[in-house]
Amino acid sequence: MMVSFFDQFASPLYLGIPLIAIAITLPWVLYPTPSSRWINNRLITVQGWLINRFTNQLMLPLNMGGHKWALLLVSLMIFLITINMLGLLPYTFTPTTQLSLNMGFAVPLWLATVIIGMRNQPTVALGHLLPEGTPIPLIPVLIIIETISLFIRPLALGVRLTANLTAGHLLIQLIATAVFVLLPMMPTVAILTATVLFLLTLLEVAVAMIQAYVFVLLFKFMPPENV
C-alpha cells in the first residue's frame, strides 16, 4: 500500500514512451494565441489582463534594468501555475513533483543571474559574499558560508517546489483512501473526512499557484537582482 502511494509520482509510459513530454507541452496548447486585431474576444482580453497584472506584480520591486527579465519570469510562472493546476485533476501526472525537472529550471536561471551579475556588476556581485561591517577575524568564515549559501540556492528552490507539491498530493491520496475505507463502516466519519478532503483540495489549488509564484519570485532576489 505504501509503495502505491508513491506510484503517482512515477513518469507514466505508453508503448515505452515517457508521457512527461506531453505533460510539459500541454500548458502552451491551452492558451489562445494573441490576435493582432484591436478588438479581441473575451478570453484573450482576460488572458492579456491577467498577464499584465502578473507582470506588474513581479517587476514592481525591480528597477528598469531588471525589467528585461519580465518575459522570461512571467512565462515561467504561468507555465508552472498551469502544470501545477493540471496535476490536481484526476488521473493526471504532475511533472513538477520531479526534482530533476525543477532543478532543470532552477540551475540555468541561477547560473544566468550569477554570470550576468559577475560580468555587468562584479563589485556588487562579490560584495554579497561579505556583509558590510564584518569583523576581520570573521571574514574568511563568512565568505565560505556565503559562497556555500550561493551554490545551494538552486537546490533549495527545486527542493521547495518538489516537497510542497509532493506532500500535498500524498496527503490528498491518503485522505481519499481513508474516505473509501470508512464509507461502508462509518458513513458519518467518512462524510466528515470527505469535507476535510474538499477543503484540502482548495488549499492545494492555492498552494499550486503560490509555489509557482514563490519559485519565480526568489529568482529576483538572487544577487545581484537588478542586472
Features:
single chain, about 230 residues, mainly alpha, 9 helices, 2 strands, about 70% helix, about 0% strand, globular
Secondary-structure blueprint:
Elements: H1 2-5, E1 13-14, E2 17-18, H2 20-30, H3 42-59, H4 70-86, H5 99-120, H6 122-127, H7 139-151, H8 153-182, H9 187-220
Antiparallel strand pairs: 1-2
Helix pairs in contact: 2-4, 3-4, 4-9, 5-8, 8-9
Reading side by side through the largest sheet, how are the strands ordered? 1-2
How would you characterize the largest beta sheet?
A: 2 strands, antiparallel
Taking Cα atoms only, what radius of gyration do you get, to the nearest Å?
Answer: 22 Å
Task: State the order of secondary-structure elements, H for helix, E for strand.
Answer: HEEHHHHHHHH
Number of domains: 1
Q: What is the count of DSSP helices, taking H or I runs of 4+ residues?
A: 9
Give unreliable regions as ranges: none
Let me know the average pLDDT. Answer: 80
Q: What does the model show?
A:
- This protein has 227 residues and is an all-alpha fold.
- The protein has one domain.
- The protein contains 9 helices and 2 strands.
- The chain has helices spanning 2-5, 20-30, 42-59, 70-86, 99-120, 122-127, 139-151, 153-182, 187-220, and strands at residues 13-14, 17-18.
- The chain has a two-stranded antiparallel sheet with strand order 1-2.
- Strand 1 and strand 2 (17-18) form a beta hairpin.
- Helix 5 (99-120) packs antiparallel against helix 8.
- It is globular.
- The N and C termini lie far apart (50 Å).
- 18% of the residues are buried.
- It is a multi-pass membrane protein.
- GO terms for molecular function: proton-transporting ATP synthase activity, rotational mechanism.
